[in-house]
Amino acid sequence: MSKVLEIRSLSKRYHQGKALLDAVDLDLSAGERAALIGASGSGKSTLLHLIAGLESADAGYIKLDGELIDASKPAQCARLRAQHIGFVFQAFHLLPQLTALQNVSVPALLLGATEKAAHFKAASLLEQLGLTARAHAKPSELSGGEQQRVAIARALIHEPRLILADEPTGNLDPESAELVMALLQAALHSRACALLLVTHDLQRARLFDPCWQLVQGKLQVGR
Ligand SMILES: Nc1ncnc2c1ncn2[C@@H]1O[C@H](COP(=O)(O)OP(=O)(O)OP(=O)(O)O)[C@@H](O)[C@H]1O
Ligand SMILES: [Mg+2]
């Protein structure tokens, strides 16, 4: 299996506080699905932001498909994210002026797809997530769970190598949560990609292999 993500000795602290991440090592290969658990404030979202080059680490390195993620080079990081990462943000970050369908289409358009092709694929993803009837609604007209599913579709449309999902089922009813997990699972089966999923749902996390837990800045095998 080819290595998608390689993290070595990654450390991060905010201001002069205690190290949030303390020499973290992590490897993820294509086809692997990893869960990341940990108390609120333990640094899970921070780790995902570092991987996506949205924040810079204090020490250590992150490689995506062998290429160094250097947050001091925003243009390079933006390219890597656009091409290789699907990020489901904890706070969704949908574009408010665009409809659900248009939001989902954005990553495909950025990579050069025609509007017709992007909309076709976006519509198919929205259908799989039970959102066909809401495709032309704007984020402000959608419930939290609907916005979350739009964000998930947007993270998958460009078939990324690495899916970073920050509590992607946090706002969903059990049925919608299963739809989302099935879609993520299908993405892993059909393509050579890897998934790193942050969750507070311990039962779900235990189904993942590996399952890691962030405790005082260290990555441990989750329990
Ligand atoms: N930009 C920032 N400046 C200062 N402190 C920050 C910043 N971003 C996050 N923090 C702090 O770092 C800690 C870790 O935040 P993070 O969002 O990574 O936690 P988390 O594990 O994702 O928590 P949750 O489960 O609640 O989402 C928190 O105490 C948070 O207040
Ligand atoms: Mg978080």
In short:
With 223 residues, this protein is of the alpha/beta class.
Count of discrete domains: 1
Mean pLDDT: 93
* CATH topology term: Rossmann fold
How many strands, which pairing sense, and closed or not: the largest β-sheet? 6 strands, mixed
The low-confidence parts are: none
**Main CATH class:** Alpha Beta
CATH architecture: 3-Layer(aba) Sandwich
Structural class: alpha/beta
Quaternary structure state of the chains depicted: single chain
Order of SSEs, N→C? Answer: EEEHEEHEHHHEHEHEE
Helix percentage range:
25-40%
**Would you identify the CATH H-level superfamily?**
P-loop containing nucleotide triphosphate hydrolases
How many H/I helices?
Answer: 7
How many beta-strand elements?
10
Shape: globular
The Cα radius of gyration reads: 17 Å
Distinct bound molecules: adenosine-5'-triphosphate, magnesium ion
Distance between the termini: 26 Å
Beta-strand percentage? 25-35%
